[in-house]
Amino acid sequence: MITTEEISINEKLDKVIPFIPEGDFYFTKGVEAFQKRKFDLALKWLKKAVELEPDEPLYQCQMSIIYTEIGAYHAANQMLTKVLAVNGDSYIDCYYLIANNYAHLGLLQDAKKYIETYLEKAPDGDFRVDAENLLTVLDISEDDEDDWAFEEEDELLVYQETAFFHLEREEWETALPLLEDMMAMFPEHVYAKHEYSFALFFAGNEQEALNLERKWLKKDRQSLFSHTNLAVFYHHRRQYKLRDRHIEALMKVFPIHEQQKLRIALVLARTGYYEEALLRFMSLPKSQLLGHISYYKWYSLVLYRVGQVDKAKLLWEEGCMKHPTLLEVRAPWI
């Protein structure tokens, strides 16, 4: 028998409207995080907004602005170009934003082309003054040949930082075209080609990545990059004898540079050499690696595997606070 009290509760429940977040909710949260300069968190919210409403160009434009702030200029321009392709001149400010990103990348001719297009289509636009100022800077830069070397160095740095951003988040498909550009523009830059093969392997082109590293190792038998990559590749393919040849070579290497030290520690962690990895991680200056998501992910796993569970959990929590991207994945030992 249903009581009067139960009827009253059911009537109240019938009046409850379930809260189902829409794109605007996530967009607002993203903007709030952006204003607090919590860029990883802002991207997380904006991605949810775009997933819910993929045809809303405003969300994509805001995402592009966040990408610009963190130096991921190529990713920003990919989004803005898509907005223009779908919406045409309804979002004319995209021309200015694209030009600004190209300017940061050092691609001055491309930047100038988009600035001129913006001023032609929106002579009284919101960014008119900024666009005119940027155009003046671009004209001066074109005439100043003495700064060419510095521009090239800056361009390389921008490419490297943008690629690093996507590699750390294991966004292989996004990183690959950036690394291809780096290899074409800076053929002597070792970082680009080895990170390219690494991204290629985990994007699904395992054999091609293996062939590249084998070829490069034949040219340079002491290549730290080739040994680290091949150790990881063979481990994932369960070719453990081949893996161990490269691990043995790495065990004898104690680099001076922190990035190379980290690279060896990460490889030892990825391939199950936890005790050895622990010693390498312990020798690293944490203060110089706060921007590396991989540091928190793999070091916490190593700590867990060697029985230092409390330390592992503390380090993982610290990593999640500094890099909200980690909140989207499980702890590495699960």
From TrEMBL:
Origin organism lineage: Bacteria, Bacillati, Bacillota, Bacilli, Bacillales
Segments annotated as TPR repeats: 23-56
Signal peptide (UniProt feature, chain positions): none
InterPro entries (UniProt xref): TPR-like_helical_dom_sf (IPR011990), TPR_rpt (IPR019734)
Protein name as annotated: Tetratricopeptide repeat protein
Keywords, sorted A to Z: TPR repeat
Top-level taxonomic group: Bacteria
Short name of any one Pfam family annotated for the protein: TPR_8
